[in-house]
Amino acid sequence: MVLISAIVCTHNRARYLGGAIDSLLAQKFAGEFEAIVVDNASTDQTRAIVESRLNHPLRYVYEPQLG
Q1: What is the pLDDT, as a whole number, of residue 32?
Q2: Rounded Cα distance, 1 and 49, in Å
Q3: Cα-flanking dihedrals φ and ψ of residue 17, to 5°?
Q4: pLDDT by residue (tens digit) across 2-27?
């Protein structure tokens, strides 16, 4: 059972996203947690940044409709 879900919503912020994800995944929590990145129609390297970290408790959701 997941106790905490951390959701990062992003749009064309690949420059900052890697550091944000790394910081989130480095947190120490005694229970189960998940991290979810919701990409709102980014056109930069957002997908690649997230996919390079998918071996962690991380999910990627792409939302093709901007807004």
Answers
A1: 85
A2: 27
A3: -65, -40
A4: 688 999 999 999 999 999 999 999 98
Amino acid code (one letter) for 54: L
Between CA 53 and CA 17 the distance in angstroms is 11
What are the φ and ψ backbone dihedral angles of 4, each rounded to 5 degrees? -135, 135
pLDDT at 65 over 80: yes
Phi, psi at residue 37, to the nearest 5°?
Answer: -105, 120
Structural tokens at position 25: 């995944």
Cβ count near 33 (within 10 Å): 15
Residues 6 or more apart whose Cβ sits within 8 Å of residue 49: 14, 17, 18, 21
